[in-house]
Design a protein that fits this description.
The chain is an alpha/beta fold. It has helices at residues 5-17, 30-40, 50-57, 72-87, 103-112, 124-130, 150-160, 195-206, 213-232, 238-250; strands spanning 20-24, 43-45, 62-66, 92-95, 119-122, 163-166, 170-174, 179-183. The protein has an eight-stranded mixed sheet, with helices on both faces. Helix 2 links the parallel strand 1 and strand 2 (43-45). Helix 2 packs parallel to helix 10. It is globular, with a radius of gyration of 16 Å. It starts with a helix and ends in a 6-residue tail after the last helix.
Length: 256
């Protein structure tokens, strides 16, 4: 599947600007997230201590807040970083991992919605729960379809003024009025830890780019889908897929 001209235009901006992306993400996916950002041309940083995170949030181009391994001290550090990023005019993105399934992170994510996220990227169950609607879900896994969560995503976008990405077999990206649909990828992507979390980091970085933020986030989803589709053709399983996926991200522009 060939990247379209808009995706390539956004990718050119991404690689030219090399956005410094502050990832306050979960412990399980830090290395993979950093490698995905590097493969695409961004500059990742994993700064988590509260004082340093607050300081760094004003320096970075974008901030990712991923609650996958949330603790009380980490929640405090995240809030300080978000507040500093907002004060500095830097966009921040929320990945509400397992929201709706667990109480502490659900409460925390609802609280920080008031802090003006630029984007929110989650699976269908997470977006439904964050929007205050009935959702399924089993831990970090969704039992709802992305299409079923689109009305909730649109409502949440209007409520927060954020770009909402509800991702699955088909990704839906919306600002509450307009919606982009991104197809592609492969089920093997769900057998590698961190593909969704890494996507959220790419979304965060894309929010720092010039132009239409909805198009930028949709492009970010498109890059990951296209790399997954291409990587599976030369993979024998999750291990070889992860390496091939990074290679496909690195060479994405060459495929045009």
């Amino acid at each position: 599947m060939q990247p379209d001209l808009l995706d390539l235009h956004v990718l050119h901006h991404f690689r030219t600007r090399c956005p410094l992306t502050h990832c306050m993400t979960n412990d399980v996916v830090q290395t993979f997230t950093a490698n995905v950002l590097l493969a695409l041309g961004a500059s990742p940083a994993m700064v988590v201590e509260a004082e340093e995170a607050e300081q760094f949030a004003a320096v970075a181009d974008a901030l990712l807040v991923n609650v996958g391994t949330l603790t009380a001290p980490r929640a405090q550090a995240m809030r300080r970083a978000i507040e500093r990023a907002v004060a500095a005019g830097k966009p921040w993105t929320l990945d509400p991992v397992a929201v709706g399934a667990l109480t502490f992170r659900t409460r925390f994510c609802h609280q920080i919605l008031a802090l003006q996220p630029a984007a929110i990227r989650g699976n269908a169950s997470e977006i439904l729960a964050l929007a205050g609607m009935s959702a399924g879900g089993r831990g970090v896994d969704t039992t709802d379809t992305a299409a079923s969560a689109l009305p909730a995503a649109q409502a949440l976008a209007r409520q927060t003024n954020a770009i909402i990405g509800v991702t699955g077999e088909v990704d839906y990206i919306t600002d509450g009025q307009r919606t982009r649909t991104v197809k592609g990828g492969d089920p093997l992507m769900t057998r590698v830890v961190g593909t969704g979390c890494a996507l959220s980091a790419v979304v965060a970085a894309s929010c720092s780019l010039p132009g239409d933020r909805l198009d930028n986030v949709a492009a970010a989803c498109g890059w990951m889908k296209r790399a997954g589709t291409a990587a599976v053709t030369r993979s024998r399983g999750p291990g070889s897929f992860a390496a091939a996926f990074l290679d496909e991200l690195y060479t994405l522009e060459e495929q045009a």
